[in-house]
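Give me structure tokens for this 533-residue protein.
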Amino acid sequence: MNGTMAASSNRIMLGPLVAAIDQGTSSTRFLVFNAKTAELLSHHQVEIKQSFPKEGWVEEDPKEILQSVYECMDRTCEKLTQLNIDISNIKAIGVTNQRETTLVWDKETGEPLYNAIVWLDLRTQSTVERLINKTPGRNKNHLKHKTGLPISTYFSAVKLRWLMDNVEKVHEAVLSHRAMFGTVDSWLIWCLTGGKKGGVHCTDVTNASRTMLFNIHTMDWDPELCKYFDIPMEILPKVRSSSEIYGLMKSGPLTGVPISGCLGDQSAALVGQMCFKDGQAKNTYGTGCFLLKNVGTKPVVSDHGLLTTVAYKLGRDKPACYALEGSVAIAGAVVRWLKDNLGIIQTSTELEELAADVGTSYGCYFVPAFSGLYAPYWEPSARGIICGLTQFTNRSHLAFAALEAVCFQTREILDAMNQDSGIHLSQLQVDGGMTSNRLLMQLQADILCIPVVKPSMPETTALGAAMAAGAAEGVSVWSLNPEDLTEVTSEKFEPQINPEESELRYARWKKAVQRAMNWETTEPVNNGNAGQK
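Here you go.
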């Protein structure tokens, strides 16, 4: 058989492929999966620049985000062609994204009206304090019965409110009915399906449930919530299910391919980890750390500082499933901080080596409350703290304390989840970039006192988006029936230290967290001198 014949027959063997755009806080990826085996065939990744224009502010450039998506698509298609895989086999594209990050653009010019305000951003702290002060009894859970969320800097509505109050271009565009609001998924889908030339302005239920404008019971935008934040409903995207054809790609090598899956990144990881049953849970270690537990088709409200969020709705006529979520703002971001801000490591693998050298933090505790504390405290006034330092402490101990911090924060949200449900998780399914750190995985098992289970294919977030896209009506190349789901190979980390020692360290951590509280309580004065408050 000659070479071209062999290549073309190889190409036919694969069957349908499904792609996923995974637009995260620190990078964008494009990944292509085999719809029958869930095998990852090729991918490309591009880092995203974050800018910090002022203390506590975090922004990203919407055009850079979009450009990175195109670049990842083009590169991945080139790689597939080199592998003799025909890109015309890509039958659908799913989108998964960093949630809550807020964008406003002009629908006539297609231009962003400001940078994207990232979920971690704290500029809205005074807005949040003002909103909480006007609630009966100064209650941050005043809207929780509708949204499942506390009033916090984390969610989109307060960021959108800030943009309308402080950015002249946004204010004007809203008044002249040219403004469009969206989270990252909406911006990407609108641009990829044509932008100002007929782009589709939509979001899915999982992303909508993170805005504070969405009623998780009626499953739609809530007029009263919009009135509360004084946001005109006309600027909001249309809310759709997580698995349906939203529109077709309008440019690039994949022109004409349907975009048919959309899930916020943490929901996508829950789907990618196949947590379809009530009680199944996963923890994702990315920029932040997010533990989600499927609670089925009725929302469960937490009494221990967890969020109630929409897990997924896999089809227009399918029921929505809900999750309890413990959100930690800073996990992988602490690695970036040690690298970029302190310069004590050059690469993230070096962190593991440094920490392994000492095997203990030697009484040093690091609470990375850079963006205040999220679950279970919801304390925006907290700030980062490193304590228990002695003359003996060196950078290796700090590296170890940073890894421990990720594990302790996970333990806090796991405890809250166990208290809320009364059923204790017997093991923890994990995924995300940081799970390649074996020391971290072992530490996590030791601190939780339960086994930690890591799938050998770590890209579960992208896999979840691909599954939603491939299963959509009108695409139907990926079956989500339990008997058709592929068996996942994984690795298990068993706890190796005695529980008493683990409890002692955890109690110390809790003491450190208390020290980090109530630090930044008033609005900083912008007089150019950050030292004076």
